[in-house]
């Protein structure tokens, strides 16, 4: 059984669940940080695979989150083994924490880290943390929770947190390690493709066509318009009950999962000095060409 170099764990996920996963020819692995467009790309893959907006099951059934401790590993493996369609599997683990198989294509989705962090902060308000603790077997907190900082306070602290990516995957070091690792694997074997959240926002059809080409999926011309419409942010919000990844009901409001979807909210919260500090911190953790692409300083892919 092949080993993975790094094991990534949090309170509700463990990358070791990938060990022994039986890949098939054509498998698609969607690897993202939280709140970076995971569900969006899962939806796009579902639409390309089934070529209809009327999906045969909920998105979490069609594309399970393999690392998630809420659902027993054996159950997830059985669910994937029973699938006859081309499989597309969700993970929040960087590529150095999962097996890399030549039969699979790995799609890594990137979002401006400040926008991802803002979305993550709001997602925290929408989580039923008591239910999540029960489902993962976590102990009850010792005392009352500390008052939550304001978004701006939290974002400034998030920028400065100096932690290990393996221990805090949604930290700034974790986000930039996840993307740097994927960036350095482009053009290799297996196939690694990066998708930018802002490109999905500005040219959804173009990005869907690009993904279809890379995945070797042919879509009839008359089908494209309905697939693109079904992948829009507005359509996904209206159909949140079937699209939002919440099989264990840990979200207070599924529709709130699709909060805004806009870019630029993170940078807008910071002063010029604070934004310059963020860029200086980022430059210590990731290559310049990745950061230029990530921060939309040029149009290179």
Supply database-style keywords:
two-stranded antiparallel ribbon, 4-stranded parallel sheet, 301 residues, Rossmann fold, alpha/beta, globular, 6 strands
Question: What would you say about this model in short?
Answer:
Helix content is 43%, strand content 8%. It is built from 15 helices and six strands. With 301 residues, it is of the alpha/beta class.
How does this structure look, described?
- With 301 residues, the chain is α/β, with parallel strands linked by helices.
- The protein has one domain (9-294): P-loop containing nucleotide triphosphate hydrolases (Rossmann fold), CATH 3.40.50.
- It is 43% helix and 8% strand.
- It has 15 helices and six strands.
- Strands 4-3-5-6 form a four-stranded parallel sheet, sandwiched between helices. A two-stranded antiparallel sheet has the order 1-2.
- Strand 1 (9-10) and strand 2 form a beta hairpin.
- Helix 4 crosses helix 6.
- The protein is globular, with a radius of gyration of 19 Å.
- 33% of the residues are buried.
- The model has no long low-confidence stretch (mean pLDDT 87).
